[in-house]
């Protein structure tokens, strides 16, 4: 049973076809989390569909079905699409990490495991998932009403309100906060990168921004085009990059209208 209550441990499903790697996961995580360890992508899908875990640690290179395909199948099913996935692999090239992100993964850890790095990334992914679950449960009704009310004219009004509020702002932090508030009017959860000579500033509705999402934001196109990663969409406007975590792909009209609004 998935955890989330204070008196329960979070439940992590670890997937790797090398027994020694599963043993290492047990050593690092076994004291703090409830672990189920399996050795194939097929068994991972069966376990996740039977009872969704709080997090999946998924090896990329496995015999049979590889981790990328497993993740794509998890993200395609409503009952498993919201499970955070951290890929684990001996490969660490940027294009490989981005392939994992495009498949629906949330982060990437390289082998051999660094104990501290793995724990930090697991705890960050679980904290983000818990925040999203709490937000969704507490605001579902209000968000349904808001999204119904936000017609094309309502969305344009929200954009104009943001532009009016942003004009007098003097700091990047204030600009970022105003942008987060504006996107929230659309029911969108985002990660921002604001560039300047002082260094890049990263902000999100969930607080922390992981290294993989920072790398994704750095690859944004400069001409305002959108890059889609399943439910996630990346765009860049001048010195501001935006990564939308919950693009409304299930609502074709709203999806197309939102993109048109920002052209």
TrEMBL record:
One of its GO terms (biological process) is phosphorelay signal transduction system. Residues 11-126 form the Response regulatory domain. The keyword Transcription does not apply. Keywords: Phosphoprotein. It comes from the Bacteria. The modification 4-aspartylphosphate is found at residue 59. Gene3D superfamilies: 3.40.50.2300. InterPro entries: Bact_response_regulator (IPR050595), CheY-like_superfamily (IPR011006), Sig_transdc_resp-reg_receiver (IPR001789). This is Response regulatory domain-containing protein. It comes from endosymbiont of Escarpia spicata. The lineage of its organism: Bacteria, Pseudomonadati, Pseudomonadota, Gammaproteobacteria, sulfur-oxidizing symbionts.
């Amino acid at each position: 049973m998935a955890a989330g209550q204070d008196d329960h441990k979070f439940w992590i499903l670890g997937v790797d076809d090398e027994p020694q790697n599963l043993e290492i996961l047990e050593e690092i995580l076994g004291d703090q989390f409830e672990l189920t360890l399996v050795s194939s992508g097929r068994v991972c899908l069966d376990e996740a569909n039977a009872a969704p875990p709080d997090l999946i640690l998924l090896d990329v290179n496995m015999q049979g079905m590889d981790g990328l395909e497993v993740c794509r199948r998890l993200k395609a099913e409503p009952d498993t699409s919201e499970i955070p996935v951290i890929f684990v692999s001996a490969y660490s090239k940027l294009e490989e990490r981005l392939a994992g992100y495009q498949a629906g993964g949330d982060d990437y850890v390289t082998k051999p495991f660094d104990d501290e790095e793995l724990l930090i990334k697991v705890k960050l992914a679980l904290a983000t998932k818990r925040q999203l679950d709490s937000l969704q449960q507490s605001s579902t009704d209000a968000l349904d009403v808001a999204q119904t009310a936000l017609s094309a004219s309502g969305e344009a009004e929200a954009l104009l309100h943001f532009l009016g509020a942003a004009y007098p702002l003097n700091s990047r932090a204030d600009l970022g906060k105003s942008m987060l508030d504006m996107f929230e009017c659309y029911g969108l959860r985002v990660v921002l990168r604001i560039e300047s000579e002082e260094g890049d500033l990263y902000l999100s509705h969930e607080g922390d921004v992981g290294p993989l999402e920072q790398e994704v934001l750095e690859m944004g196109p400069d001409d305002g085009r959108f890059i889609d990663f399943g439910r996630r969409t990346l765009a860049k406007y001048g010195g501001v990059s935006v990564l939308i975590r919950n693009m409304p792909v299930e609502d074709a009209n709203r999806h197309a209208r939102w993109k048109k609004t920002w052209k």
